[in-house]
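tool_call: predict_structure(chain=1)
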Amino acid sequence: MNLEAEAAAALAQNKGNTDATPAQDEGEEVGPENAFVALAHSAIAIEKHLFALVYLYKTSRPEVTGVTFVHEVFDAIYDGSDPFKEIDDVMKALKAKEKAEGKDVQAP
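tool_result:
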């Protein structure tokens, strides 16, 4: 698996999913009344890109970092979904079941 090709394909796929500011949606220029909103959206986009770069860097050396590349996790950086929701739901159900039986469950 070529990690650079995978990252390039994912970035190309997510290029159309960028969050636009309301000013961009309506074709307005950024002015004093909506500059803060534009700055906030820009800061969020920069944060997502930096987080993706850190994730790609860490997954490029799994033998050192212990982190392997999972495509769903990379996608979740940009679309805001939770790739671990299903796992969290199973763990909550297990904890509730064990608590009902009077046993103590350790989180993984």
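agent: The chain is about 70% helix and 0% strand. Proceeding to next step.
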